[in-house]
Design a protein that fits this description.
Layout (H helix, E strand, L loop, with lengths): L1 E4 H6 L1 H7 L5 E5 L2 E6 L5 H10 L2 H17 L4 H11 L2
Parallel strand pairs: 1-2
Antiparallel strand pairs: 2-3
Length: about 90
C-alpha cells in the first residue's frame, strides 16, 4: 500500500492512477489520511463499491439485519420459493 500527499498526487495523477492497479493508495493531507485511490476493473465492481458507501443503502441493509435479528429470518428454501412465486 502506498501513501501519497495530496500535492504529490495532483502533480503526478496519471502515474498514481496507473500505480493504483497494484494496490490502494492512501491520500494524505498534512500527514493525515483523507481518501483512498482504488483501481476498478469493471462497472460491476464500481457499482458494488458505490453501494458499499451509500448511506441510504447501508440503512436498508441495517434495517434488514435488525429484522432478521428480531424474527430469525426465513429458511433458505422458503426464500427461494417466494422468489419463484413472484417471477412471472
Amino acid at each position: 500500500m502506498k501513501i501519497a500527499p495530496v500535492a504529490e498526487l495532483k502533480a503526478q495523477l496519471s502515474a498514481y492512477l496507473k500505480s493504483s492497479a497494484e494496490g490502494p493508495i492512501v491520500v494524505t493531507r498534512h500527514g493525515k489520511p483523507v481518501a483512498v485511490l482504488l483501481s476498478i476493473e469493471d462497472e460491476d465492481e464500481l457499482e458494488r463499491l458505490v453501494l458499499a458507501y451509500t448511506p441510504k443503502f447501508q440503512g436498508i441493509l441495517e434495517a434488514a439485519r435488525e429484522q432478521i435479528r428480531e424474527t430469525g429470518g426465513i429458511e433458505h428454501e422458503e426464500f427461494w420459493q417466494e422468489m419463484e412465486a413472484e417471477t412471472p
